[in-house]
Amino acid sequence: MNSKLLILFSIPFVFVACNQSSDESSPEAMADTKNSAQYDRLLAEQRHLFEALPLKADNPENETTNDKIKLGHALYFDTRLSLTGNNSCNGCHNLDSYGVDNLPTSPGDAGGNGDRNSPTTLNAALHGSQFWDGRMKDVEEQAGGPVLNPVEMNMPSEQEVEKRLSNVDMYRVLFAKAYPEETNPVTYTNMRNAIGVFERQLLTPSRVDEYLLGDKSALSLQEKKGMLSFAYIGCTNCHSGSVLGGNQLQRFGVHKPYWEATASEHVDRGLFEQTNDSLDLYLFKVPSLRNISETHPYFHDGSVQDLEEAVRIMAEVQLDYKMNQKEVKNVVAFLEALTGEVPPKYKQNPLAIAE
After folding, report:
1. pTM for this one?
2. pLDDT tens for residues 44-63?
3. 152 noted as active-site residue
4. Could you say which of 28, 61, 152, 355 is catalytic?
């Protein structure tokens, strides 16, 4: 048996039925309190696997200013960054729905869909790389990719983007304020850097952060059980740190072909599609698990709608472990506690407000 599982099953856990009474002095409530404290002690031993979300996600190579945030906010919502005006960044990464569109794959400007699921932009600035194959280093570089992608926003060139933006009075003013030292500030590089600065504001602290920062009452007993199972089963081998993922590429389907478990219609070979190197077969960026209960469907192809099913699949194909129903429920409860909130001011479309 896997050594992690031996550890899991040898811990003397005391599972207590949920108390239906509101009387906090009842024997059941007192037992839950004692049991919760036991989990706090066990979780303290796993504390090194988890990090609270930082307050900022600044890039020293792209200084954050209020004027850049304002410009990036407008650009993020502007459909004029797509050839025929059908798409904006917010179209696929909707801030009203946790930075995604909840579709398996997203329609582009010309009507066709991409071949991979649109990941959330929330907390993406804390990832070590961008896109499912990790081919771009940060949100600034990533912001320029979809605009020129013929399947996505379909603009023909950087020069055409600059020309279009230069013809808008509002943007001539916003770019000049954001980049006051430049004679011709309306550039493609400045556009993607401004969007990057805006995306760096999209951090969503959750109750898990409150717990990690010392508030032991922030999580329920079930959520603590799930957090501990998450660590003991081995999920933290890939999903650790402040965003529980986002910082490495891993082979999807360690113990069995992933498509057999996900019933994927198309077998995506991951990073191999970029490099043609057999060592990169089925390598995908490990996604962040923050807000995961809201960012369905799951996996690189959006092939699984249900979070419980996604958890079972990951345990099976990555860890060769079959989770029981109680474990699944507890882990999902923990994952749901990772849900935060987008700052309301950033969910508003500034272009609509201006009009």
Report:
1. 0.90
2. 999 999 999 999 999 999 99
3. yes
4. 152
